[in-house]
Amino acid sequence: MRPVADVDLVRHHTVYSCVMGSRAFGLQTERSDTDRRGVFVAPTALFWRLEKPPTHVAGPADEQFSWEVERFCGLGLRSNPNVLECLHSPLVEYADETGRELLSLRGAFLSRETYDSFARYAVGQRKKLEADLRNHGAPRWRHVVHLLRLLRSCRDLLRTGALVLDVGADREWLLAVKRGEVPWDRLEPVMGRLADEARAALDGSPLPGRPDRARVEDFLIRVRRASADA
Q1: Whether residue 34 is found in the same domain as residue 123
Q2: Using CA atoms, how far apart are residues 80 and 73, in angstroms rounded to an integer?
Q3: Side-chain half-sphere of 91: how many Cα atoms within 13 Å?
């Protein structure tokens, strides 16, 4: 097999792509970028070489990022927030037969383990915001919005078993936060309350204790076999 450029894997082997970022969250403004995320399937023959295909590719368009399907599934089974949200974007731009099957597996990735993953991510984001406060006197308001949205999403997922990206009625308030119009001392209690509510929702959550690894792995094996036989 001839060498394949990384971006050609995205151009010719994408099985799923969607719009993410502010447009998927319902927080877009006239200045918002269009962030695209996707999944590609590297031809199985590429894995027979010493040099393996990339696990992810940036581009070819601006604000575009794609994962190879195995990397995507692995991250999803570890409840990576970016991957789980990608699977639940309301703005799907493309999905072939493999992509549609991947979307049908969305529930297999969700479990109570999501709480730990989202909580760790939230703690990391909170530390960065507090460092900004110490060093610059103010947080990066865009990152504050991201943290608030993530905490809200985690809480609602644990309560309902459904991951919903659109912020709905919180849109105008979150946009005000993004503009720096809500003081930090008013936001800290909100962050604490959302974190407490997510923790409280964990025990009674309708989500299973663990993701359905066997179901996801069966999908991946069949994808690899189909590619090898093509």
Answers
A1: no
A2: 10
A3: 16
Q: 68 is written with which tokens? A: 């190879």
Are residues 94 and 117 located together in one domain of the fold? no
How high is the pLDDT of residue 1?
46
| Residue 1 within a domain | no
Q: How far apart are CA 211 and CA 54, in angstroms?
A: 25
- Rg, the chain, Cα only: 19
Which residue's entry shows tokens 């078993």? 161
| DSSP structure class, residue 88 | T
* Cα separation of the two ends of the chain: 13
Tell me which residue of 12, 69, 60 sits closest to 39, measured CA to CA. Answer: 69
Q: Going edge to edge, which strands form the sheet with 92-95?
A: 56-58, 64-68, 35-40, 14-20, 92-95
Q: What is the DSSP-derived secondary structure letter of residue 78?
A: T
Domain that holds residue 217: 6-109+212-229
Give the separation between CA 132 and CA 1, rounded to whole angstroms.
Answer: 49
Nearest alpha-carbon partner for 54 in 66, 63, 62? 66
Q: Report the DSSP pairing between strands 64-68 and 35-40.
A: parallel
Give per-10-residue mean pLDDT for the chain (230 aa).
75 97 94 95 93 94 95 97 96 98 97 92 89 90 94 95 95 96 93 94 96 98 92
